[in-house]
């Protein structure tokens, strides 16, 4: 009797993994299986047409520029409309743009402007999707197990990314980048179909407001009123830009010239994915009390991939560096999501998320577009070392902000006695 009753207990879904959470996790897995390979495919599609580092940077910038332009609008829209509808519409746009990109690459010789245009459409879809998705995820979990839920979500997402990167790199080498882009289009279609079934009835309807500008102003006030929030967003505006330039532009070039092509680079990206899986497993059990202090200390290793590419390290050591980096950034990611979840009111989650995303990627188009000219002016090695130094400097600077060092994880009892708009402090 004990044995038969214990089995269903072990198979029972955790209390924090409700219907919405399960659908969000499943759709993120599907999307990441396609998108990680597509990142490699897009870079090598440009290189296969005779493009250089500057052209790869222009295509990468074309994807990120619409994110910068439309993210804040996307956040305001996601706090006004049912978030799942915004997510599905964005997935549809991504599906169409990637399918067209795949068709051009498979059937002929795509022009640089065509690749930039289609990539820009995909970036537009992401600008509306990201704030809606993050707000939806935050609203799908509650209580003291939120950190574990976020860790499990990221574990599933990055586990899929691990397989997608390895498979994508191999497919680019075997069948060409066009077919990898086609798989990504199909993944967006499947993920969008899953997200149709998300339930938003638990989210109270918003009272009529003063319009889009008023919504954006409210979100801005939420951000600037919290030093820990705006300082880390500012930090990541630099970190994401230089890391993005190193991995999106210099990485494929180093792989082509020194590592043997797309296969080894895909393996290195897969090692990063494996690291994120390891980091997520760690965060399933570890609950650092000082959330942002622990997370920020783990941003320093993001300087390592740029340094490894500058040397450049052989494939084996490069994969080890990427693994450590993935594990470290996952500690930050779960800590950051937990801090946002416990501090930001539900009706402003998507707008704050939009400002977070906006600040984090605002400099990426400039960094990726300038990566090629920087290589010409200073050399690839010096440019990569510069990326590594910038990560270290801005991360050290953000640790000087008292709220970053002091903001603490709340227990349920503490949260009942502390207003959500006030950061919980440690006793010392």
Gyration radius (Cα, Å) is 21 Å
Strand content: under 5%
Number of strands: 0
Q: How would you characterize the largest beta sheet?
A: none
The averaged pLDDT comes out at 81
CA-based shape? globular
Give the helix tally.
18
**CA(first)-CA(last) distance:** 51 Å
Structural class: mainly alpha
Low-confidence stretches: 1-11, 413-428
Fraction of helical residues:
over 70%
List the secondary-structure elements in sequence, H or E.
Answer: HHHHHHHHHHHHHHHHHH
Write structural notes for this entry:
The N terminus and C terminus are likely disordered. The longest helix is centred in the middle third of the chain and has 33 residues. Helix 2 runs antiparallel to helix 5, helix 3 runs antiparallel to helix 15 and helix 12 runs antiparallel to helix 13. The protein has 428 residues and is mostly helical. The protein contains 18 helices and no strands. Helix content is 80%, strand content 0%. It starts with a helix and ends in an 11-residue tail after the last helix.
A few lines on this structure:
This protein has 18 helices and no strands. It has 428 residues and is mainly α.
């Amino acid at each position: 009797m004990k044995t038969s009753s214990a089995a269903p207990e072990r198979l029972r879904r955790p209390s924090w993994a409700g219907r919405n959470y399960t659908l969000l996790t499943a759709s993120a897995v599907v999307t990441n299986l396609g998108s990680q390979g597509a990142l490699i495919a897009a870079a090598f599609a440009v290189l296969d047409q005779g493009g250089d580092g500057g052209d790869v940077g222009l295509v990468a910038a074309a994807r990120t520029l619409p994110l910068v332009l439309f993210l804040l609008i996307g956040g305001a829209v996601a706090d006004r409309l049912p978030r799942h509808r915004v997510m599905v519409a964005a997935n549809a746009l991504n599906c169409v743009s990637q399918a067209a990109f795949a068709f051009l690459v498979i059937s002929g010789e795509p022009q640089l402007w065509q690749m930039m245009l289609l990539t820009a459409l995909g970036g537009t879809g992401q600008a509306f999707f990201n704030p809606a998705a993050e707000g939806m995820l935050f609203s799908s979990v509650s209580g003291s197990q939120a950190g574990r839920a976020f860790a499990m979500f990221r574990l599933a997402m990055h586990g899929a990314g691990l397989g997608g990167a390895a498979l994508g790199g191999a497919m680019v080498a075997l069948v060409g980048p066009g077919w990898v882009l086609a798989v990504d289009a199909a993944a967006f279609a499947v993920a969008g179909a899953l997200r149709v079934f998300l339930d938003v009835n638990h989210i109270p309807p918003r009272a009529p407001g003063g319009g889009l500008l008023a919504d954006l102003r409210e979100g801005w006030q939420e951000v600037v009123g919290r030093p820990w929030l705006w300082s880390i967003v500012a930090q990541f505006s630099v970190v994401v830009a230089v890391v993005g330039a190193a991995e999106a532009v210099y990485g494929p070039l180093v792989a082509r010239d020194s590592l043997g092509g797309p296969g080894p680079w895909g393996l290195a990206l897969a090692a990063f994915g494996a690291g994120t899986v390891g980091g997520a497993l760690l965060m399933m059990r570890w609950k650092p009390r000082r959330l942002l202090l622990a997370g920020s200390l783990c941003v320093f290793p993001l300087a390592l991939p740029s340094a490894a590419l500058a040397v450049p390290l052989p494939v084996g050591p490069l994969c080890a560096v990427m693994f450590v980096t993935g594990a470290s950034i996952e500690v930050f990611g779960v800590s950051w999501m937990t801090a946002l979840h416990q501090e930001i009111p539900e009706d402003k989650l998507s707008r704050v998320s939009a400002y977070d995303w906006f600040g984090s990627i605002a400099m990426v188009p400039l960094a990726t577009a300038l990566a090629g000219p920087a290589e010409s002016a200073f050399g690839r090695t010096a440019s990569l070392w510069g990326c590594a130094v910038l990560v270290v400097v801005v991360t050290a600077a953000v640790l000087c902000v008292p709220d970053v060092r002091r903001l603490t994880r709340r227990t349920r009892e503490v949260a009942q006695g502390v207003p959500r708009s006030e950061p919980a402090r440690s006793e010392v």
